[in-house]
Design goal:
Helix content is 30%, strand content 21%. It has 178 residues and is α+β, with helices and mostly antiparallel strands. It has a domain of 106 residues. It is rod-shaped and about 120 Å long. It starts with 13 loop residues before the first helix and ends in a 5-residue tail after the last strand.
Length: 178
C-alpha cells in the first residue's frame, strides 16, 4: 500500500543539497583556519613566556652572585677583575669548606677542590672570551692564600639551537670548567 504525498511536502533538490554543503564547507574551513592561527599564537606566547622565565632566572643568579663581589676578600685583592659586553669577573669568598667560616657567603663541605680559594700566580688562568690572564700575583691574607675565589660569568651563543639570538649564560669558578 502506498501513501499519497501531500502537496505541501517538499524535498531537497540535489542543487540545494550541494549549495548547503559548499556553505558548510566554507564555514568549517574558516573555523579551522581561525583555530590554527590561535594554536600558533598560543604556542608563540608559550615560547615567549619560557624565554622570559629563563632570562629572569639567569639574571637572578647573576645578581645574587654579583652582590657578593668583594665579600670576604682581603683589601689587596680587587673585588672586580674584568667587565665587558658579555663577560664579568670578580673575586668573592663565595663558598667555603671550612666549618664556621663567617666570612664566606655559603658553606658547602662537598665543594669541588679548587673552588674555595683564590687562584695563585702559578695557577694563572685566562678570563673566557678575553686575553686577560689573572692573577698577576698571589693574594695572601695573614700569610695564607686568600679565601676569595674568582667567579666569571659569560655569554656564548647556544649551539643546541638553530637560532642566532639564543645565548647561554656560563658561570665559572677559578680555572674550573664552566
Amino acid at each position: 500500500m502506498t501513501v499519497p504525498r501531500r502537496s505541501d511536502e517538499h524535498g531537497l533538490t540535489l542543487i540545494e543539497m550541494l549549495v548547503a554543503l559548499v556553505v558548510f564547507s566554507a564555514v568549517l574551513a574558516g573555523a579551522l583556519a581561525f583555530l590554527r592561527a590561535q594554536s600558533r599564537s598560543f604556542s608563540l606566547g608559550s615560547q615567549r613566556v619560557a624565554m622570559m622565565q629563563n632570562a629572569r632566572f639567569a639574571l637572578d643568579v647573576l645578581e645574587k652572585d654579583l652582590r657578593t663581589a668583594g665579600a670576604g676578600a682581603p683589601d689587596i685583592q680587587p673585588p672586580l677583575i674584568y667587565l665587558g659586553a658579555s663577560v664579568v669577573a670578580f673575586n668573592a669568598n663565595y663558598l667555603s669548606i671550612t666549618p664556621g667560616d663567617v666570612f664566606a657567603v655559603y658553606y658547602n663541605p662537598d665543594a669541588a677542590a679548587g673552588s674555595t680559594a683564590a687562584l695563585t700566580q702559578a695557577d694563572r688562568a685566562t678570563i673566557p672570551l678575553t686575553s686577560v690572564a689573572y692573577p698577576d700575583t698571589t693574594y695572601l691574607s695573614s700569610g695564607v692564600n686568600s679565601p676569595a675565589e674568582t667567579i666569571v660569568f659569560f655569554f656564548l651563543p647556544d649551539s643546541a639551537t638553530s637560532r642566532s639570538d639564543d645565548f647561554v649564560l656560563y658561570r665559572q669558578v677559578n680555572a674550573l670548567a664552566p
